Amino acid sequence: MVDFLEVIRRTESGAYLSERDFDIEVIFKTTRELVKKHGLKYDRKQLITLEPEMADGAFQAGLELAEQAGMYCVNTSRVIKFSREELVYGLRAAPRELSLGWGKDQRTIRANVWGRLQRPFIWAGFSGAPLTEETYRQSIRSYVKEPLVDALGHGSLHIIDGVEVRTGSPMEIRATRQELMCVQEALAREGRPGMPFVAAESSTTVLGDLGVMHPAYMPPNYTHFVATLNELKTDYTDLSKVMASYEYGVHNINLVDAIIGGYAGGPEGAAVVTIAAFILGLIVNRASISLCHPAHNKWVSTSPPESIWAENLVGQAFARNSPIITIGDVWTSAGTGTRDILYEIAAITITKTLTGNHPHGVGATNGKFPHGSGLDARAMAEVALATYEQQLTLERGNEIVCALVDKYEGKFPHPDIGKPYHEVYNVVTAEPQPWWLGIFNDTKREMTQEFDLRL
């Protein structure tokens, strides 16, 4: 694989290009041409693609885009380019499985290989949500207590001791350390001290990551996020995260949220850009895991049909052509305490499980409000495992997903955001309130009766 110092050299030696020209002339125009060349076409009736040639075409389009576009360094206005041979070697060198955590809580996450449905790895927590210390401490227990959850990713702290955590301020260091103290306290309290987790979610710059690269906070062999900026871009902040992790020994998760309706174009283009970002991220971000979040430009969540279709195509493309470890965000527009969040979770999770992405979530209300709970994670886990244990076919999975989307699609303009954590859970016992558990169980029975999905 291309040495990381060589990547840094190419941020200085690559061809100069304005950011606007990269967005328009490279990303927008090239992606549009590749979508047309490979015959990629969104189909609302096939949210889980039943045509293998479509997934294969998407993979080739993504590989071509990675080669033609490269990755843009915002700080130097240079394009980091790689040859086809370098990109393919990066795919070959990518890990196929990782063991995370330690002791009895250690879990293994594997790349999905097409034709062999694997047990999903459940990565859960209040993804993406900015939380107060009080809500963070209270809510984290509800996720750790769920026995089907394999790893934790629990959002960020945005206020510490009454002080707002601003980007680039010293408070990012304080918040990230406080975040991980809360995580480890909760893991020990619930008897899961070795449970793997994503670290440093409270920092958007490299400050927080550097501040917790110590065994007392983020032990080696754990994980943190390194983003690919929209679209196919990086900067010194993320490259610094890579450099620090390169020497310290934590795993990088390449976070990609191609925008449907942005420079990537429609869902077809967003899928192609995501595939290219995953391929480039293996080299530039030294990614051990790649996270897919095709963000709808209007609704943000991953539950709109266009987002579900795009992620299904990305998952199938890699599972069929070059398996790497991929996870996908379960981000809903609805909030906890509602039926709609359970429908959204089910639709996204079935798609991920059948097409090669392990579920990561739940990002309730798109991370806007502290309206999430451990019961959301239980729903995600039970749906994923039911899909796996019943060995659903793509055809049957597609029928179920399309029917679930019908239940909530019309509500995106005014989603039911539900209630905050302290209203849906007993904050002392970290157990769901009876009324919320009742809705959860009623909805499970409904899905069992309607779809024969044995939850």
Concise overview:
It contains 15 helices and 21 strands. The protein has 455 residues and is an alpha/beta fold.
Give the helix/strand layout.
Elements: H1 4-13, E1 15-16, H2 19-37, H3 52-69, E2 71-73, E3 78-80, H4 84-93, E4 97-100, E5 107-110, E6 123-124, E7 130-132, H5 133-144, E8 151-152, E9 156-160, E10 163-164, H6 171-189, E11 198-199, H7 206-211, E12 223-228, E13 233-234, H8 236-248, E14 251-256, E15 259-260, H9 267-284, E16 287-292, E17 295-296, H10 305-321, E18 326-331, H11 339-355, E19 358-363, H12 374-389, H13 394-408, H14 421-424, E20 425-426, E21 431-432, H15 434-451
Parallel strand pairs: 2-13, 6-8, 6-19, 7-9, 11-12, 12-14, 14-16, 15-17, 16-18, 18-19
Antiparallel strand pairs: 1-3, 2-3, 4-5, 9-10, 20-21
Can you give a write-up of this model?
The protein has a single domain (97-451), classed as Alpha-Beta Barrel (TIM Barrel), CATH 3.20.20.460. 47% of the residues lie in helices and 16% in strands. The chain is built from 15 helices and 21 strands. The protein has helices spanning 4-13, 19-37, 52-69, 84-93, 133-144, 171-189, 206-211, 236-248, 267-284, 305-321, 339-355, 374-389, 394-408, 421-424, 434-451; strands at residues 15-16, 71-73, 78-80, 97-100, 107-110, 123-124, 130-132, 151-152, 156-160, 163-164, 198-199, 223-228, 233-234, 251-256, 259-260, 287-292, 295-296, 326-331, 358-363, 425-426, 431-432. The chain has an eight-stranded parallel β-sheet with strand order 8-6-19-18-16-14-12-11. A four-stranded mixed β-sheet has the order 1-3-2-13. It has a three-stranded mixed β-sheet with strand order 7-9-10. It is globular. The termini are far apart. The model has no long low-confidence stretch (mean pLDDT 96).
